[in-house]
Design goal:
Layout (H helix, E strand, L loop, with lengths): L6 H64 L4 H4 L9 H11 L2 E12 L2 E13 L12 E12 L1 E2 L10 E5 L2 E5 L12 H4 E5 L2
Antiparallel strand pairs: 1-2, 2-3, 3-7, 4-5, 5-6
Helix pairs in contact: 1-3
Length: 199
């Protein structure tokens, strides 16, 4: 009597398992592409939000210098009061474009923990790409980010903006004399105000 040959029945199982493994590999590749697109969108959103807020910080410095020149209450500017943000849109758009994305919402003025900032939402110009999952070839990634301006300097509560004021900017002493002020005497904006992502 001849023994049954099982070799013919194992081939379909092998093909089936190989198909499953290939499908799984392609699925993981699709998820990796989607994650890469999301990371690209988040990087663009972070850059755009930071650019908008840094632009606002530059205006804050301009306001501080003008208040000192005009004899106004320049101490209010050191508290990081809101600014008009005239150039924030252009700044955000430029950085988003440099990251191959477009701003689709914002920059919108906001506050986080009492600090002024800007929220931006972007969409990538590139798509996830062709994958085993239908529709990804037309799918763009979106992300949002918020950045804030945080004052670095402390000064006495009874400080008089008309007199010499001693500032402590994160441990670095700095003196401003409104009677003997020159715009070039101001430290760099980053010494007076930090700009960082809020989320």
């Amino acid at each position: 009597m001849r023994l049954t040959d099982d070799r013919g029945s194992t081939l379909p199982i092998y093909i089936w398992l190989t198909g499953i493994l290939l499908f799984t590999a392609f699925a993981f590749f699709a998820f990796a592409q989607a994650a890469s697109a999301r990371n690209g969108a988040q990087s663009a959103a972070d850059a755009a939000a930071l650019a908008a807020t840094q632009s606002a910080r530059d205006e804050l410095m301009d306001g501080l210098g003008k208040a000192l020149d005009d004899g106004g209450d320049w101490l209010d500017w050191l508290n990081g009061q809101d600014v008009a943000g005239a150039n924030v849109e252009a700044a955000a758009g430029q950085l988003a474009a440099e990251n191959d994305s477009d701003v689709i919402a914002g920059p919108d003025a906001t506050q986080v923990d009492g600090f002024p900032g800007y929220r931006v939402e972007v969409r990538t110009r590139f798509t996830v790409g062709d994958t085993i999952i239908p529709g990804t070839e037309n799918k763009h990634a979106t992300a949002h980010a918020t950045a804030v301006i945080q004052p670095r300097c402390d000064f006495p509560a009874d400080a008089d903006f008309k007199k010499v004021v001693e500032l402590d900017c994160d441990g670095t002493p700095f003196e401003i004399d409104p009677e003997d002020f020159h715009l070039e005497d101001l430290p760099d904006a980053s010494a007076l105000f930090s700009v960082h992502l809020a989320d």
